[in-house]
Write a structure and sequence with these properties.
Elements (H helix, E strand, L loop, with lengths): L1 E5 L6 E5 L6 E3 L2 H7 L4 E7 L3 E5 L3 E6 L5 E6 L6 E6 L6 E5 L13 E3 L22
Parallel strand pairs: 3-10
Antiparallel strand pairs: 1-2, 2-5, 3-4, 4-9, 6-7, 7-8, 8-9
The protein binds zinc ion (2 copies).
Length: 135
């Protein structure tokens, strides 16, 4: 499925080909910290399936406790997360943040990772009082 995405300020624009069946949630603390949100939603795609249409993203390389490195790619103007990927040579898989795409509401994740650090209130989120616009 083809998706179109952009960062919050519009500096970055992209197109990508993704498989909706591969969309998953990550509850790891890196995703929580970097996104400032409860979790992130991503889909793995080969680099070739991603086309940058506008802008020049910036990359931050995070070194994990294990020594593994992960490149976090984002808009240098507004900070919107675009995707993460491996560092160095070899075939690249992008973990694209599909919630930045126009098609964001067409995805239902099929799995959740790092659930041990998931916020406990998420399991009960439907019971939290909600309004349809800003509160
Ligand atoms: Zn931006
Ligand atoms: Zn994560």
């Amino acid at each position: 499925m083809k998706i179109e995405g952009s960062c919050l300020c519009g500096h970055i624009k992209y197109e990508a080909e993704v498989d909706p069946k591969d969309v998953s949630v990550c509850h790891c603390t890196d995703c929580q910290t970097l996104s400032g949100s409860a979790f992130r939603v991503g889909v793995p795609i080969p680099k070739e399936n991603f086309t940058l249409l506008a802008g020049a993203p910036k990359t931050y390389v995070k070194t994990a406790e294990s020594g593994g490195k992960r490149a976090q790619v984002f808009c240098p103007e507004c900070g919107s997360a675009l995707y993460s990927t491996s560092v160095g040579d070899g075939p690249k898989i992008f973990r694209l943040r599909v919630t930045g795409s126009k098609q964001r509401h067409e995805f239902t994740p099929t799995s959740q990772g790092w659930y041990r650090s998931a916020h406990k209130w998420l399991t009960d989120i439907a019971s939290i009082p909600a309004v349809q616009k800003q509160r």
